[in-house]
Design goal:
Helix content: 40-55%
Strand order of the largest sheet: 1-2-5-6-7
Mean pLDDT: 77
Length: about 400
């Protein structure tokens, strides 16, 4: 069953007043139809041509866009439609979308629809998030330079094969907005404390990373860390809620410090950007990218296209650097160097200087997982040292934030 959906609409040319019919897309699933998603980004989607005079224009009308890899649903509301009208239309299209999805894909995020003004607003929102849609599944992606092609490929997990109770519980856990809510989910679903849940989460993380679904992988990793905390008897209020970290830029007043932003803007090459990241590791945080995207929008709104282009150019390079430094391989190298440095202060300082990713939330989470895994294996010395390193890095981060 097709997810993307088009309707035949009766239109009138604004130039010659000729009436004609045209196919208009009202639902676009970016994974199923990356060609339509690409047309949306280029402004070509739902462009119609009058058969009489040849006039071309955007047909307008409501449009629901599903971006499953980005875990987002957007609705393009017609600018001239009353709110109660477009809200009802959005609800109708959402029902159609959910009904066309397989049961395992009906995740909680589908109920959180982001409303924008017309398709141009949706296009702007997608570009702000840096979304780049992949080619159809039949086209094999080129391997990254950092991927060892000799390793066996990780297949996408068949979620339907997992126990229903586990899948439902994991979906609710990911949808929780705070650690306290997540703890309530665990209380409602004791299955999350079983090995079945661990196996499913691990497979989902591997599959998400293998297919470039980094937002999903991060959400699952955070859920896994929280489960480790709760099983160890750590109350939600006793730890920083890492679920809030990616959304910090969405909170009014939480932005990149001006000194970090200016250092980012002054970079003219990749080596210079590496130096800026070494001085300001906060640039590697996912929410920093959200802040930079917001600055691009602000610059465009002010008509300052030169500044918007300058930010976007450096932002793309920073994204590649973020993937390199905070990806699984980069973090493994950084943490391995940290553990080899021992307790010598100068050696530790040198490692932190060489691997600024150690001062990110991703490294903080990775060290916690390392400690939890070491305890489970009975390697208490490694577990204690990982905890010490985590505390040391936290103090360094707090010191940088105070400067």
């Amino acid at each position: 069953m097709s997810i993307s959906y088009a309707e035949l609409a009766s239109l009138t040319c604004p130039v010659c007043r000729t009436s004609f019919e045209a196919e208009i897309w009202t639902i676009v699933d970016a994974r199923e139809r990356p060609d339509l998603a690409g047309m949306l980004l280029s402004g070509e989607l739902n462009m119609v041509t009058c058969p009489q005079c040849g006039h071309q224009a955007d047909a307008g009308g409501p449009l629901l866009v599903h971006d499953p890899d980005g875990r987002r649903v957007y609705f393009a509301a017609p600018a001239d439609a009353p709110e109660h009208v477009w809200r009802e239309r959005a609800r109708e299209l959402l029902y159609v979308l959910v009904g066309s999805l397989p049961e395992e894909a009906r995740l909680p995020y589908l109920g959180d629809v982001q409303v924008e003004v017309e398709s141009g607003g949706v296009r702007k929102a997608l570009l702000r998030r840096g979304r780049r849609f992949a080619p159809p599944p039949s086209i094999a992606p080129k391997p990254s330079r950092n991927v060892h092609t000799s390793s066996p490929p990780v297949e996408r997990l068949d979620i339907a094969a997992a126990p229903d109770a586990v899948v439902v519980a994991i979906e609710e856990l990911i949808a929780a907005d705070t650690a306290t809510e997540a703890a309530a989910v665990v209380n409602r679903h004791p299955v999350l404390a079983t090995p079945d849940a661990d196996v499913v989460i691990e497979q989902l993380i591997s599959a998400a990373r293998a297919h470039g679904e980094h937002d999903i992988a991060r959400a699952l990793t955070e859920a896994r860390v929280l489960l480790h905390d709760l099983r160890a008897g750590v109350a939600p209020g006793d730890r920083q809620d890492t679920r809030a970290a990616p959304a910090l830029a969405d909170v009014e007043g939480i932005r990149l410090a001006d000194v970090a932003y200016q250092a980012f803007l002054r970079t003219e090459s990749l080596p210079a950007l590496r130096e800026a990241v070494a001085d300001y590791p906060v640039l590697l945080e996912p929410w920093a990218d959200e802040d930079l995207a917001a600055r691009v929008d602000a610059a465009l709104d002010e008509g300052n296209e030169h500044l918007a282009q300058a930010i976007e150019l450096r932002r793309d390079a920073l994204t590649r650097l973020r993937v390199e430094m905070t990806g699984a391989e980069g973090l493994h190298q950084a943490i391995d160097a940290l553990l080899r440095a021992g307790h010598e202060p100068d050696a530790l300082a040198a490692v932190v200087g060489e691997y600024p990713a150690l001062l990110t939330d991703a490294a903080h989470t990775a060290l916690f997982e390392l400690a939890a895994g070491a305890r489970a294996r009975g390697d208490h010395a490694l577990a204690e040292y990982a905890v010490e390193c985590r505390a040391l890095l936290r103090r360094v981060r707090e010191g940088l934030q105070e400067e």
